[in-house]
What we know:
It contains ten helices and twelve strands. The protein has helices at residues 36-45, 76-92, 150-169, 184-189, 204-221, 244-256, 283-293, 306-314, 325-329, 333-341, and strands spanning 8-10, 13-15, 19-21, 52-59, 97-102, 131-132, 146-147, 174-179, 228-233, 262-265, 297-300, 320-323. The protein has an eight-stranded parallel barrel with strand order 3-4-5-8-9-10-11-12, surrounded by five helices. Strands 1-2 form a two-stranded antiparallel ribbon. Helix 6 (244-256) crosses helix 7. The two termini are 29 Å apart.
Amino acid sequence: MSTLFSPISLGQLTLKNRIAIAPMCQYSARDGEATSWHLMHLGHLALSGAGLMFIEATAVEPEGRITPADLGLWSDATEQALGNVLRAVRENSPMPIAIQLAHAGRKASTRAPWEGGAQIPSHAPGGWVTVAPSALPFTPGDEAPMALDKAGLERVRNAFVAAAKRSERLGLDGIELHGAHGYLLHQFLSPLSNRRDDEYGGSLANRLRFPLEVFDAVRAAFPAAKPVGMRVSATDWVEGGWDIEQTAAFAHELEKRDCAFLHVSSGGLSPKQHIPVGPNYQVPFAARLKQEAGMPTITVGLITEPEQAEAIVATGQADMVALARGILYDPRWPWHAAAKLGAQVDAPPQYWRSQPRQFKELFRGAHLGPR
Ligand SMILES: Cc1cc2nc3c(=O)[nH]c(=O)nc-3n(C[C@H](O)[C@H](O)[C@H](O)COP(=O)(O)O)c2cc1C
């Protein structure tokens, strides 16, 4: 019996298996509005048989976009555009879909990765003034962000709440807050980017305050029956930065607040990071946080092989695995994993006849008919 292909619940949302599609920015929106690319992208991944799909980092206000082409959910127009995509995807797939709500903070106003990813200065076409906990640029030489004042904090918090309400109207199954990869919430957590001297900076409790306020506000604005979780970077990979001990303290606070899951990544806060990248390199962080806080924990990062994913969840190091690059490369990864592990997976009836002869019951409920 495969553990990877056994069900799991995030709050009251039950998933058919423990494979999640990680959030992946597509830099293909227009003024925050989803395009036909999103229909292609989410549509084909929705046929993959994964237990859950996260929609890419979705900005809660225009200034929170990483690039001018980021997806957004801050207006009726952005809500309608995403709604059109989701309607088509859902008509053709039962896969639960969650959205990652995000604000890029000081890492906003940049070019797409395939255009080099550099900052777009605020005076250049397509650029804007970024905001952050403190007026410290991500890269020396970048234009410094504006430190958020009290009114700014309230505006951003309200933008997360408004996006959560739009997410509910869109019938999304869950929300993940982007507290990782050096974006705004992570910028509040890390002592390297947060040098505030008010109640939102300094001590660990103060640095946790704004991310926890955003979590509480979003949790209160989204139906209690649906999960709200947090993506974290477990460490900055920089001496004197945010680390696993501080992440554990954050996880304890989230657990008290009915956080439905923790999605454990790392890095992204500082260009000084040194990451020992390799298979499973982030799994020990997930294992530690799962033990500490006991929330359903998702691990991610260079998980590419079915047996590797199976071992991670079967040994209880994490409750779920998320795949990003691996499932772009092989969008039927869950089918192939189910075949390898002797499990069953959802596939659309239109494709049932593709089941290879040696597998009798790979596709759940499949009736193959004459061959
Ligand atoms: C094209 C692409 C876009 C990404 N966009 C996001 C994003 O929107 N939000 C996020 O938290 N991580 C994002 N990531 C990081 C992934 O979710 C994942 O954590 C990382 O790629 C490691 O997993 P992998 O080894 O399976 O690719 C992105 C990664 C890729 C490859």
